[in-house]
Amino acid sequence: MNNEFIESHIHDIPDFPKEGIIFKDISPLLASAKARSITTELLVRDFRGQTIDVVVGIESRGFLFGMLLADALNAKFVMLRKPGKLPGAIISQEYELEYGTDTLELQENAISPGDCVLIHDDVLATGGTAIAAAQIIQKAGGKVEGFNFVIELDFINGREKIKDYKIASVLHY
């Protein structure tokens, strides 16, 4: 019942951001207090009772539920950003895209050695960003306890890149 309710708040937008892509728009989900609350509880359930010191949200839509997860788990929230968005000393991790590369950045002292970290993003697609997030957390000395996602696109099989970690997704397409 809860998953059906949440799914009713995800809208398909055909041909966005380019032709042939069906974009899963979470804006209606964010606009509903009830849908946000249920989604947050479903995201937290697999990690409740486990030590989570830090929730890392991946730019930018990972920030939206990432903060709510951190509150629910009584954990610190840290942003993983694209290049040039964070002040001070940073740790960087480059990763492969379908055509080219990208980079994620983390403030140098945001993760303490030994911190237990939950990585959150809105969608798991190819898994490239997710594995880069794990690598940067490990560079900082953190221990990745798992990943969670609002949506997982099963047909792309991004889970394969992060299969060595605990993975929880609310909706599967």
From TrEMBL:
UniProt keyword annotations, A-Z: Cytoplasm, Glycosyltransferase, Purine salvage, Transferase
EC top class named in words: transferase
UniProt domain Phosphoribosyltransferase: residue ranges: 46-144
Pfam families: Pribosyltran
Entry keyword Glycosyltransferase: yes
EC number, as in UniProt: 2.4.2.7
Function according to Swiss-Prot or TrEMBL: Catalyzes a salvage reaction resulting in the formation of AMP, that is energically less costly than de novo synthesis.
Protein name: Adenine phosphoribosyltransferase
Species classification: Bacteria, Pseudomonadati, Bacteroidota, Flavobacteriia, Flavobacteriales
